[in-house]
Amino acid sequence: MSAESLGAKLLGEVKVEGLDELLRTLRYNLAPQSARSYTGQSAVDKLLNTFTSQNPQTHKDPVLELVGSPCSGKKQLLYHLVARLLLPPSYENITLRGRSTAVVLFDLGNNFSLLRLRDVLIGYVRSCILENSDPLPNDAMNNLVRISLDHLHIFRPQSSPSFLATLSDLQSYILDIYSHISANRTVGAIVINHVDAFLWQDRLDDAEDQATETKRIGLLSSRFRDLVTHLRRLQVDFSCPVVATTFAMSSTTYSRIDGHPVPVLQSQLPSAWRAFVTARLICAREKTRKLQQGMSVEEAALEAGQRREVVESSGFSASLDWSESETWREDTRAKIKDTHEEGFTFKVTADGVNID
Q: Which residues pair with 285 in a beta bridge?
């Protein structure tokens, strides 16, 4: 074998690795392997850790989808997760268990309320103060809220092409230290409020496009494939999870897997998005007892006040969707069955969100 052939053979055995891959591997080797904090909320993080690989060579940051009809609690849960991502681990000797990160939020539904986020954030801090029995002056509370919300970056694109264009330029925006004050914070999550907000317009565009041209891949599927491509690239660049909410346009059914009833949702979104999601939580309000059959109007009126109190005090559930369970790893399925990490319950009040 000539020296040139030997050199070519040895060169072919050399594994080429970029600096970003090297740093990411180093980061995961130094981080605790058993409990990575993605959101700062233990119930959510336990679920996501069940699905993510602990091997730095195969690890991918998770994608969490919150699905539910209106008033199902999914947006309230989103407010809570965003608050935990923005808050610091501690403040004025008060343990907050926050992530102290920057959050990029795409408000596609144009209904994400900063006032409600502020209330949820303050409510959570006050619950931590009760645990610590350490008062916090109003000035200090207002300062904490301000420095936390300063690191929330909200974009409101009005169409799918605008959304994709913004995602394409997002890396440049985040890395430009003169564009914002979050240069000293990592990106905690890319949050999408109503990822399906443009679905009907995209379907209309798809129908019009198919009427004029014959294509193997429709416009709707193409846009969601581009969306997944952009988000995957950003996850690689910033090592952060994606959290998205969607509207449940199909009813949830229950199937029996290994003799155990589990919720199954038939998603209306293209397959590219469904395959991209790591875990999907179906949010719903807990059911209350219906009026008894044959009850008179007078009896119903007498019970109305009590029923109102029961409905207002009822909680919400976030249940793991099993519709894509056939694609889960065997160790993931076994771990969920053994640990019963199939969701959690939470309550929503005027002061905030409490997860059980």
A: 316
For the beta carbon of residue 60, count every other beta carbon within 10 angstroms.
13
**Distance in angstroms (rounded) separating the CA atoms of residues 20 and 234:** 12
Distance, in Å, from the CA atom of 126 to the CA atom of 124, rounded to the nearest integer, reads 5
The pair of structure tokens assigned to 307 is 């029923």
CA torsion sign, 338 to 341 to 347 to 352? Answer: positive
Residue-averaged pLDDT of the chain: 84
Per-residue pLDDT tens over the stretch 300-329:
566 655 555 555 557 899 999 888 888 888
pTM of the entire predicted model = 0.85
* Residues 164, 230 contacting (CB under 8 angstroms): yes
Alpha-carbon gap, residue 338 to 331, rounded angstroms:
10
Distance CA 108, CA 194 (A): 6
CB burial class (10 A; 0-12, 13-18, 19+) of residue 117? buried
Q: Where are the beta strands (DSSP E) in the chain?
A: 63-68, 90-91, 94-95, 102-107, 152-155, 187-193, 242-247, 252-257, 260-265, 279-285, 316-320, 343-349, 352-355
